[in-house]
């Protein structure tokens, strides 16, 4: 009886055991600030294609790896440390739970801002190695990076992993950059040439949601730290400290300070920001319109027998979210609300869709028996992502495929849009160049 129950319980213990390290336990809850981790494979889906299928063409869009906070976010963390530093006597007197004892030693921050971190370099290097191992039949000959330092550096680390350190000297390899500014049409940063686009569409939602979920946390922390007088911005800083210490050092004392539901509310804030500024919550058809530039390019390339077999391109979480929006994937009905409630089953999930070093990988596939005609599949962060707008058969649902023709038909909005046409100008305002 004893032996029997132990054997029964063992697999459960393994399944329920906390991930091996602290960051793994939380890495799928920090939205687009999560370190890279593979997305869960939806139940009933196969990662491997049938044996008679062959990948013929690939379009890969990589997000830059883990980075320091943006300068605008770093201020929250710094202000928190000043507040705690100036109140060191009150901190010394406070009766703190184990998870907050680290404050007695004084918490300082040396985080930089904006640039790729050491774990970010490793993420991209590994992706380059894994891409080589996964697709030995291809030799990619070009890499395109959005013209921002952390994106360029990410593409370089990928190249080191993929080609080896002599890659700048491989004559067949072209490394190019596309500027990220308001006079360069780019499917990596399409919002920059859409004058009516405004970051505040997302930011305003996070301010509203922050005014709802932050005060109870601030109150709880202040009850543990009498005399310190933390503000909601300081609480926000502590949440950022958790995410960005992880991004820079793989570990943060702050993550254990918060309850699971507090972290989930922070995760929701990050989803609201991305959905609001780069997704479905943009006004009218602005979200799909911006993402259409990417989808249009994908369809053009996969329809063109003279196109390159492999495209390796590097950009942002925003690039991926706008593309998903044009594709009609990860769409919530009703839309995410800035006043909650937090739907735990929402489809728009930055934690699994656009973590640091996210990988949106499109495969064009030919099979000798399982399917007739060319197929397409999206592998997002190492897991097939169901193409719900064009999947038809049970086999489609198992492998995440669609016939390429059905995919093209489902995305006729995207192929109907070209930058600077009347649809673009009426949604975005005339770009004026
Ligand atoms: C940080 O502190 C400065 C000086 O007190 C203040 O002006 C600023 O608004 C604070 N920023 C944040 C994000 O709390
Ligand atoms: C006290 O606060 C000021 C400004 O807010 C900051 O410059 C200073 O470093 C803080 N002192 C400590 C010990 O953190
Ligand atoms: C890829 O390039 C390497 C080195 O130049 C070469 O040895 C290999 O045969 C190439 N593979 C393919 C599939 O072209
Ligand atoms: C590229 O080739 C030049 C000239 O042979 C050499 O000096 C340089 O070290 C090489 N760079 C790399 C990264 O291999
Ligand atoms: C681009 O931005 C600059 C400065 O931010 C501004 O002066 C310029 O008018 C903008 N150009 C266009 C075409 O939007
Ligand atoms: C964001 O909120 C501010 C202040 O309420 C408002 O003036 C502005 O129009 C809003 N911006 C957007 C894009 O919603
Ligand atoms: C606590 O901070 C709030 C907001 O900054 C301020 O209004 C209040 O006066 C402060 N209270 C104390 C006791 O410092
Ligand atoms: C919180 O930070 C925001 C953004 O920097 C700032 O506008 C606001 O004044 C800050 N609030 C407080 C109470 O410091
Ligand atoms: C097909 O791809 C080739 C090579 O990139 C390009 O020169 C050509 O213009 C493309 N054709 C179409 C119809 O897009
Ligand atoms: C896309 O196709 C659907 C169904 O055939 C059609 O109703 C719709 O008007 C088309 N949209 C565009 C933008 O062509
Ligand atoms: C849209 O705006 C661009 C840039 O100002 C202009 O060149 C183009 O002619 C406009 N398109 C239409 C259909 O008016």
Automatic annotation (TrEMBL):
Disulfide bonds join 53-367, 242-255, 390-402. One of its GO terms (molecular function) is acid phosphatase activity. It holds the Pfam family His_Phos_2. InterPro entries: Acid_Pase_AS, His_Pase_clade-2, His_PPase_superfam, Histidine_acid_Pase_euk. PROSITE patterns: HIS_ACID_PHOSPHAT_1. The keyword Ribonucleoprotein does not apply. The active site is at residues 64, 317. Transmembrane segments: none annotated. Keywords: Disulfide bond, Glycoprotein, Hydrolase, Signal. Residues 1-16 form the signal peptide. The keyword Hydrolase applies. PANTHER family: MULTIPLE INOSITOL POLYPHOSPHATE PHOSPHATASE-RELATED, PHOSPHOGLYCERATE MUTASE-LIKE PROTEIN. This is Phosphoglycerate mutase-like protein. It comes from Gloeophyllum trabeum (strain ATCC 11539 / FP-39264 / Madison 617) (Brown rot fungus).
